[in-house]
Design a protein that fits this description.
Number of strands: 2
Order of helices and strands: EEHH
Distance between the termini: 48 Å
């Protein structure tokens, strides 16, 4: 994202172990899994909103540096790619679990 004319570095995703845990063990496993996907969806929404704002500023001539639009587009694309990869890995894991014979 671009804030105050400066490009902020890409934030590293927290690992599962460092995410906030609930006191209830049964709920914490579900919340950790859902937190990862909720954060990924939120990142996609945030980067898309930023891209739309940068495109609007460029279209109305309110932006001084046109290179911010392709940067915002790349960030939005990377966020979508990350979400798709998370989904694919979750589906692979689910399918693998379903193949286990008990």
């Amino acid at each position: 994202m671009i804030e105050n004319g400066f490009i902020t570095p890409i934030q590293r995703m927290d690992s599962i172990g460092t995410l906030k845990r609930n006191e209830n063990v049964e709920q914490s496993g579900n919340s950790l899994f859902s937190d990862i996907f909720n954060n990924a969806v939120k990142d996609v929404k945030d980067t898309q909103t930023n891209l739309e704002q940068q495109q609007y500023l460029l279209a109305t001539g309110q932006i001084d540096d046109a290179h911010t639009v392709p940067i915002a587009a790349s960030e939005a694309q990377m966020a979508v790619d990350m979400l798709v990869q998370l989904r694919n890995k979750a589906l692979e894991s689910y399918n693998e679990l379903m193949r286990i014979s008990l």
